[in-house]
Amino acid sequence: MEKTADVVIIGGGVIGASIAYHLALKKAGRIVLLEKGQLGEGSTSRCVGGVRLQFSTEINIRFSLESMKTFEHFEEEFGVDPEFRRIGYLFLAATPQEMEVFEQNVKLQRMFDIPVELLSSREIEKRWPYLRVNDLVGGTFCLQDGYAGPSEVLTGFAKAARRLGVKVYEMTEVLGVSLREDCVCGVRTKYGDISCPVVVNAGGPYASIVGDMVDVKIPVKPLRRQVFVTAPFRLSDHPIPLTIDFHTGWYFRQEVDGYLLSGPLDAEPSFKTHIDYEAMAEASENAVYRVPALEKARIARGWAGLYEISPDNHGILGRVPEVDGFILANGFSGHGFQHSPAVGKVIAELIVDGKATSIDISSLSIERFKKGALLLEPMTAFRD
Ligand SMILES: Cc1cc2nc3c(=O)[nH]c(=O)nc-3n(C[C@H](O)[C@H](O)[C@H](O)COP(=O)(O)OP(=O)(O)OC[C@H]3O[C@@H](n4cnc5c(N)ncnc54)[C@H](O)[C@@H]3O)c2cc1C
Fold first, then answer.
1. Phi and psi at residue 136, in whole multiples of 5°?
2. Average pLDDT of the chain to the nearest whole number
3. How far is the C-alpha of 43 from the C-alpha of 35, rounded, in Å?
4. Predicted TM-score (pTM) of this structure
5. Ligand 1 atom closest to residue 303's alpha carbon, by position in its atom list
6. 12: Cβ below 6 Å to ligand 1?
7. Could you tell me the distance, in angstroms and rounded to a whole number, from the CA of residue 44 to the centre of ligand 1?
C-alpha cells in the first residue's frame, strides 16, 4: 500500500466512490480510497435507489438538479447502465396541513422549473385507480423523478476512479487519523500508515465513529430502515410511480415483477441490520390499506439498512474548524444515493479549488449546529 497520498477517503460507499472519481477528474494528485469491507457493503447496497427533484428545501433541490444531470448521461460518462427509470414520484397528502406543505413545496420547486403537478384526490383516483383515495386531500407528482441502481452507480464511479489512477483498497479499515498541531497528517491501518494532508470522512452511518478519531463530534445517527419485496404481482399495465403516503412515511414502487414496500424506520439509533416479523406485518398493513389489491400479494423477501441521520435531515459537508484537512461528507439522512454525483463534485471542488463552486455548501457546514442555523423542512422530512 502507498506510504503517502494527497487525499485519503475513508469509506467505499457511493459517496466515497463519487468523491474519488471527481477528485481524479480534477487531477487532485495521489488519491487513496480505503474501505473496511467490500465496496458498497454499507448503506449503499441496502438503498432502494430513489432519485427525485421533489424536495422541500432549496439546498436539496440544488443537489438534486446537479445530480440529475449525471444520472441522465451516466452511461455516456461511465460506460455503465445506471438502470435509471423515470417512473415519477407521487406524494399523497391525508390532511389539509399536509396539502398546505405540498403547495408550498410546489411553489418552491416551480421556481426551479421543476415540472411538478398539484393533484386533487379525484385526479389521483382517475390516474392510479388501484389506490385508496377516500381519506386523501390530494398530492403532487413529478414524472422526472424515479429510481436508479445503487450498485450500478457505485460501480460506475469506482471503475472510472480506478481508470483515472485512484488506488482502492477493500478490507482495509482506517483505525485512526493522525494529527500534527490540529492538522491532518495521515491515517493508520493494520497494513501500515499513509501520510496525507487531507482525509475525507465518507463513513456513512459510521461517520461519528470516524469523527471520534480526531475528536470531532459529528451528529450523525444510524437508524435502521426495513424494506420488503412481494413475489411477482401485477397491479396495472401502466408504470407505477414511487408512491408515498406522506402521513405515515410508507412508500412503494415496482421492483422487477413485484413491488417494493417500505417497512418502518427505527426510532432509536443502532447498527442493527436484521429484519423482523413485526416490521413485515406493518409494511403489509400499510400496503393493503393504500393499495387494497395488494392483499393478494405475498412477501417474498426483505432486508434492512442504516440511514445516516443528521439533526435536520440534511447532509453535513465541508471542513471542520478544529482540524485542518479533515473534510466531511456525511449525514445525508436517506438522500445520499441520489445526491452522490453532486456531493462528489462539490467536495472535489472544495479540496482542489478551495471552494465549492457548483453549489454553495456553506449552509451545510457542521458549524450550523453550534450556531442554531438548522435547515428545517416545513414538516417531518420524508426519507426515501
Ligand atoms: C433501506 C434504505 C433505503 C434507502 N433508499 C434511498 C433512496 O431511495 N434514495 C437515496 O438517495 N438514498 C437512499 N438511502 C440512503 C443511501 O443508501 C445512503 O444515503 C447512501 O448510501 C450513503 O452512502 P455513503 O457512501 O455515505 O455510505 P455507505 O454506503 O454506508 O458507505 C460508507 C462506507 O464506509 C465504510 N467505513 C466506515 N468506517 C470505516 C473505516 N474506519 N475504515 C474504512 N471504511 C469504513 C463502511 O464499511 C461503508 O462501506 C437508503 C438507505 C437505506 C438503508
1. -95, 150
2. 96
3. 13
4. 0.97
5. 1
6. yes
7. 4
Stretches in the chain below the pLDDT threshold 70 = 379-381
CA distance 24 to 157: 11
The SS3 of residue 338 is helix
**Dihedral sign computed on CA atoms, order 287, 291, 295, 298:** negative
Determine the pLDDT at residue 379: 64
Burial class of residue 296 in the structure, from the number of CB atoms within 10 Å of its CB (0-12 exposed, 13-18 middle, 19+ buried): exposed
21 lines ligand 1 (CB under 6 A): no
Per DSSP, the three-state class of 120 is strand
Burial status of residue 263 (CB atoms within 10 A of its CB: 0-12, 13-18, 19 or more): buried
* Ligand 1 contacts CB of residue 336 (under 6 A): yes
Q: How far is the CA of 202 from the centre of ligand 1 (A)?
A: 9
Contact of 364 with 59, CB cutoff 8 Å: yes
Q: Are 8 and 169 in contact (CB under 8 A)?
A: no
E strand intervals along the chain: 7-10, 31-34, 50-51, 89-93, 116-120, 138-142, 146-147, 167-169, 176-180, 183-189, 192-195, 198-201, 221-230, 242-245, 250-255, 258-265, 299-309, 316-319, 326-330
The Cα–Cα gap between 348 and 331 comes to: 18
Q: How far apart are CA 9 and CA 238, in angstroms?
A: 43
Q: Give the closest residue (by CA) to ligand 1 atom 18.
A: 336
What is the predicted pLDDT for the residue at 376? 79
Sheet holding 89-93, edge to edge: 116-120, 138-142, 89-93, 242-245, 250-255, 258-265, 221-230, 299-309
pLDDT reported for residue 103: 96
* Beta-sheet pairing, 250-255 with 138-142: unpaired
Residue found under cell 479499515? 173
Residue 134: other Cβ atoms inside 10 A: 6
**What pLDDT score does 380 carry?**
60
* Length of the chain counted residue by residue: 384
pLDDT at 378: 73
In angstroms, the CA 190 to CA 381 distance is 40
Q: What is the pLDDT of residue 381?
A: 61
